Protein 1
Amino acid sequence: MTLHAEIVLTARDVSVAVDVGDGETVALLGPNGAGKSSLLGAVAGLLRPDAGVVVLDGRVLVDDSTWVPPHARGVAMLAQDPLLFPHLTALHNVAFGPRSTGHGRAEATRRAREWLEALDVGHLADRRPAELSGGQAQRVALGRALAAEPRLLLLDEPMAALDVAVAPQLRQVLQTVLHDRTTVVVTHDPLDALLLADRVVVIEAGRVVESGPTREVLARPRSAFAARIAGLNLVSGRVVTGGVRTREGSVVAGVAAPGLAAGSDAVAVFSPAAVAVHRDPPGGSPRNVLPVRVTELEPRGELVRVRAGDLSADVTLSAAADLALVPGTPVLFVVKAREVALHPAGLRAD
C-alpha cells in the first residue's frame, strides 16, 4: 500500500505533504504543535482538511469533492492512550477490530487469539483493561488495530506514556510487526526513528523542513529539530569562502559536502563531544571560537552537558568545576574545523 497526503489546515497553519512507499515505515519528527498529529488525524479521517488530497494505494480518500468516512478507509490508528473498551476483555477488545470490518464472531475471535499470542499477551485474554499494566494494554490495543488488517497503520507516540522499562519491550514488538507494513509513526524519540523507520520527515511550524533516510538525517541533520534529537549542534547560515557565515556575521569553518555552492543556505553540524569550553580565547591551530552564555548544566554520569541556548558541549565534572560554570557564565565554545561538517540546508533527495 502506498500513501500520498497533502494537507492544509488553515486555522492551525499546517500545510504539509508526505509520501509513504509500499511496506515502508516513515517517522514524523518535530516539536509539539508542529502539525504531526494533525496530519495523522486528517489521514485517519478524524480531521477534515480545508484543502488537500489523501490517496491510499490509488484510492482517493480526500480531495475537493471526496470524503471517505474513517470506518471505510482501511486505516488503523494507535495513540498514547490505548482507548480499550473498559467493559470488554482483552480478547473481545481485539476481536472488535475484525468484527468492525465484517468478520463473523468465530473468525474474529480466532484472529484475536492469534494476535494476542503474537504480541505475547495471550495469557491475558480474559482480563479487562483495568487489570492490565500500561504496556500490556498498549499491546492489546495494537492487536486490535492489526486484527482489523488495516491497509495503513498510524502510530501517534504509542510509547510516550509507557514506563521506561516497558517501552523497549513494545519497541521490539513493533520492529517485528511493522516489517513490510505501510506505517506512519509520530515520535519524539530518536531511538524509535532509528529502530522502526525507513525514512523520517521533520515538520516544524506546520511545514516539512527536512526529509530523508533515517540514519542519514540523524547523522547529518539539516534542520534544528533533527539536530536536537540527534544530540548534535547545528549552526545555520550561508556558504562563504572558508565556511558558513551566520546571521550574526561570524564564520564557522568546516569540512564541506561535495557541491556546496557559495551563497547557498547551509548548516554546520558538530558533536557536543568535539567542543572545548574556555573562559579566555585559546591559542594554537585554527579553530572555530563561538562566544556563548551558559543557560543550563546537565549532569551525565562522569560528564556535564553544558548548554548555551541551542548549542551544547560535553565537559568533565572537574573541568566544569575549574571553569566555575553556572547559568549566565559567558564562555567560548571552541571546535576544530575538521570536526565540523558543512551541508546544504533543508530538504534532501531521499
Note: The chain has a mean pLDDT of 92.
Protein 2
Amino acid sequence: MSKNFDVVVIGGGPGGYIAAIRAAQLGFNTACVDEWKNDKGGPAIGGTCTNVGCIPSKALLQSSEHFEHAGHAFGDHGITLKDLAIDVPRMLARKATVVKQNNDGIAYLFKKNKVTFFHGRASFVKAVDGGYELKVAGAAEESVVGKHIIVATGSNARALPGAPFDEDKILSNDGALRIGGVPKKLGVIGSGVVGLELGSVWRRLGADVKILEAMPSFLAAADESIAKEAAKAFTKQKLAIELNVKVTKVDSSGDGVKVSYTDGKGAEQVLEVDKLIVSIGRVANTIGLNPEAVGLKLDERGMVVVDGECKTNLPNVWAIGDVVRGPMLAHKAEEEGVAVAERIAGQHGHVNFNTVPWVIYTSPEIAWVGQTEQALKAEGREYKSGQFPFLANGRARALGDTTGFVKFLADAKTDEILGVHMIGPMVSELIAEACVAMEFKASAEDIARICHAHPSLSEATKEAALAIDKRTLNF
C-alpha cells in the first residue's frame, strides 16, 4: 500500500534536504528519499556535498593547510617544531568524523521538522490521481505517492572517454578524498574548483602535483586579473599547471598511470604518475529515475528541463540543483530548494543567479560575484574599476598572509556594483558582503561609506570600494 505525501523530494543533498525542511516548515506532509550509504550501510544524508564534496574537501584542505603552516610559517611566529610528520589515516579519520557530524545533523533536522525519510533509490512508476507514484528501492521496497515531486538528484563526476574511474589509480572527487597515503607523483586533469582544491591538498602534504588543463587560459570563468594573480601564487607554491593540452590516452595497466597528451605547442608528451585525479566537470544524475514512465523531459545533456521557476513539463513536478540548468553549486541548489517549496505554498520564491557567489578554497582563496571585467568589455558596458591589495591591510600583515586583492566593478554612471572579485585570505567569508550589496542594488559609494571594523580583512572591501573613485585611504 502506498504512503501518501503532499511533497516528496528525491535526493537528500543540499538542494533536496533544504527543500524538504522548508516544505515541512510551510505545513506540508513531506518525505525525502535518498540512497547514500555510510560505511556500515546506513543512511548518509547530505548528498555529494556532504559525503564526497564540499565538506570532506574542506576538512582535508584545513588539515593540509595546518601541515604546511607548521612546516613553513610557524618559524616566523617564534614556534619551533621538530620531526614534523603527517599521519594520513588519522587525517582521513577526522574527515570522516566531520562528514558523519553533518550526516547526523541533517537526520536530526528531519526529525525536528517532521520530514519522513526513506533510505533507497526513488524512481517514477506512473501518474496517479492526486500525484505521482514512486518506487523506493532500499532494504525493503516501498511505494510512495506525492502530490508534488521535487527532483534533486544532483550530479556525478564526468569520466574521461576510455578511462573509467576505478577509484584506485584513476580517481573522481570521491577517490581523491580517500587516498591512503601521500602519492609521490599526482596528476590532475582539469584546473577547475575540484582540481585546484584537491591538487592543493596533496601538494601541501608532499606530492609532486601536475595539473593538465584543456583550456588555453587559466580560470577562464574568473576575472582575468584574479586568474593572473592566482596563477602567480600557485606557480610560487610549485603547483604545476599546463594549459592548452589535449589528452590522447590514459593507461593504468601498470603500477601507476601514464597520461599521453599533446601540449600547447603540438608536441607529444607523457606524464607518469602514481595517481590521477580526473576533474573535467560533472553530469546530471538521472540514473534509475525512470523519467520516461511519466514523460518527464530531459535535454540533450541529460538534465531535467525546467523553466525559470524550476517547473518541469509535468504539472506539480519540479527540479532543482545540479540536475537542472545553472551553476552546479550547493548554495544555488539550496536557494532553489527554498524557492520551490515556497512556490508550492503559493508564495514567490526568489533566486538571482547574478548574486550567487563562486568560491575556490585554495590558498589564497578565490571568490567572486557578478560580472567579470572581460564580460563588461564584451557587452560594451561603461564601468569603473577599483582595487585594493591585502599587502596594505593591517590584519592581513598580522596574519602573515598578504597575497591578493579585492576588486570592485561599478557602473560608470550610476555607481551600481556590477561585480566584486577577491583573491586572498578568507575571501570565502568576505564575499557575502558583496552579495548582500548587489542583491539590494547598492552602489560602490554605499560600501565605501560603511564603517568596517579595524583591524579586519573586511577593510580591504571598503578600500576597494573607495578605489572606484581613486580615494583609497591606506594605499
Note: The chain has three domains: 3-157+283-351, 170-280, 355-467.
Protein 3
Amino acid sequence: MKPIYVLNGPNLNRLGKREPSIYGATTLDEVEQICRATAGDRPIVFHQTNSEEKLIDLVHEAIDEGAGIIINPAAFTFTSLALLDALKMFEGPVIEFHISNIHKREPIYHRSYVSIRADAVMAGLGARGYATAVTAMLTMLADRA
C-alpha cells in the first residue's frame, strides 16, 4: 500500500512556539502523531523542511512512491512556481493545507500557486485539522480505487 506524504514547509518546525495566537500550541511532533493515528493502516511519510529544494525533492519522491500528498507549503505557497511545477507532475490527489485561514490574513497570503494544482484546499482548521486532511485524503484514495 502506497503511503500518504504529509509535507510541511518552512518554519513549521517551530509550531507550538511560533506565533501561538495564529498557529496554536500544538507541536509538529504532535501533528505527526495525529496524522499517523488518523491514517490507521495507511502508511504516512511525514517530513518538514525549511528548504524549497528539499520540499521539491520530497514531491519528486512522492511522484514515484506515494498515493497522495497533503502539503502545507507555508511561505512557498505564495512564491514557488518550482513547487507548483513539481506538484503538477504528481498523478494522485493533492490537498493544500494551512493551519490558519490565509484569506483572513494580509493580502500577500491570498494568492496561492499551489492551489492551481491542488484537488482540495483546507485552511483555518488549526494544527488538529491535519486529521481532517488525512481523513479526506483516505476518502479521495478510496474513491479512486
Note: The chain is about 35% helix and 15% strand.
Protein 4
Amino acid sequence: MKRRNILWYSLLFIAGCTTGTNPKNNSDKLAISSPKKLNFTVTDVAGIEDLQQDYGAFRAVLEEILGIKIDFFPVENPTAAAPALLSGKVDIVFAGPSEYLILNSRAKAIPIIAIRRSNYHSIFVVRADSKIKSLAQLRGKTIAMRKIGSTSGHIAPTKLLIDAGLNPNTDLKIIMLDDQGAKALKKGEVDAWATSFDRYHNILEAEGLLEKDFSIILKGPLLPNDIFVASNLLASSFVEDVRARMFEHQDKLIQSLLTAKANQKYKDGKFISANDSDYNMIREVYQKIGQGSFL
C-alpha cells in the first residue's frame, strides 16, 4: 500500500482493453438510436449484490423515466468500465471525477450529466496537539491518503501539496491507508491525514474517534463532480434524450440514490451540465506527478 505512483492503473487497463480507436463504426448512421435494453455500472462498486443494494432504487427509477429495461453490469475495479464501454458490454457508467478521465480518454465516453456534491472538498487533518498549522510544515512528514487515483483522497490533496510548494514525490512520504488514516493519525503513525470533508465525520464515527482530538488545517475548493457517461456506440440524439429526462426528473432520481446509506454524500446534491473542462485540475495533477501519458 506504500506505492506512490499510479502506474498500476495503466496495467489494469491494458490487461482488459487495447489502446487506440474503437473498432466499431460509431457514426450516428450505425449508432444505437433506440436500444431495447441498457447495461449500467458504477466504477467504484464491485459485485452485483453491492450494486443492487446501493443503486437498485436508482436503477428502477431511471428505468421508469427512460422507459427502457436497465440491467446491472458489475466491474471488478474502476478502470474495468473502460474496456466494457469499448466492447459494448456496458452503456451507461456512473463515475468519480478521476475515473471519468479514464473513460473519456480511453473509451471516448460521452458525458451525460453531473451531480454536484455540496460538501465535496479535500481536507488535511492533524492531531489537535500537533504543531503543524499549514501544508508547508508537512515537508519531511508522513501523510495518510485514501487510495491511488481517488479524487478527494489522493489527486486533489496532491494538487494542494503542489500548490503549497511541496514536491509530493520527494518532500514528504505518502502512504495509502484507505479509511484507516484516522486511526493511524490518532496513534501517531502518520503526521497528517488527507480525506474528503463529506467523509470525515462518518469515518470518525465509524472508528469510534472524537472530533476534538483532531484539527482541520486546510479545506480545499469544491471538487469536480461525479458524472454519468454514455457509450459512444449510442446515438447522440438518444444520449441527449437521456440527459433531458434526467434533468427533468432529477429530484426523484437523487432521492432514489439517498435510499442507500452509501450514497448519503449526495444529500443536497444537484444535477448540473457535465463540462469536460471541469476536470482539467485532475489532468494537471497527473501531468505534474509524471503520469500524463496515462491519460
Note: The chain has two domains: 35-118+224-294, 122-219.
